[in-house]
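hey
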């Protein structure tokens, strides 16, 4: 899943940085409504580590408790960073895309498919552009 080493991550604005060490325990791609709202994205990728493997190296994240779970985010730029479920104390779930190298942590499953947006399954059929998509055409 990943080599045994230190993986750095942080938020968009750079105010918060962290490191996680060791092997990831699990990776998953979550379609639940809570992850969608918290991330502003159609789904959230997660990488699970043991809680003692995490170290904040810059700044202090803000936390929000919702549905008895704690989500950590940057109080300046709002980037989601981490998730802790007190019912599952053996895991700290890192927002995979807050890691500097999310490409090293591909999801191995998708969860909460019951909540998945119906258009997620047809993304592969959409036109693709290497960078910005063309601007919308004005109506004539
Ligand atoms: Zn930030
Ligand atoms: Zn979720």
């Amino acid at each position: 899943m990943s080599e045994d080493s230190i993986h750095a991550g942080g938020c968009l604005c750079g105010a918060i940085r962290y490191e996680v060490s060791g092997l990831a325990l699990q990776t998953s791609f979550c379609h639940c409504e809570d992850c969608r709202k918290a991330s502003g994205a159609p789904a959230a990728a997660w990488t699970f580590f043991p809680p003692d493997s995490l170290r904040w190296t810059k700044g202090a994240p803000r936390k929000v408790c919702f549905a008895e779970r704690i989500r950590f985010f940057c109080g300046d730029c709002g980037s989601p960073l981490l998730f802790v479920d007190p019912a599952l104390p053996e895991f700290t779930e890192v927002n995979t895309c807050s890691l500097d190298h999310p490409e090293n942590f591909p999801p191995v499953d998708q969860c909460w498919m019951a909540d998945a947006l119906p258009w997620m399954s047809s993304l592969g059929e959409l036109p693709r552009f290497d960078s910005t998509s063309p601007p919308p055409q004005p109506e004539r």
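The helical segments are 33-39. The pocket of zinc ion (ligand 1) is lined by residues 11-13, 15-16, 74, 76-77, 79 (CB under 6 Å).
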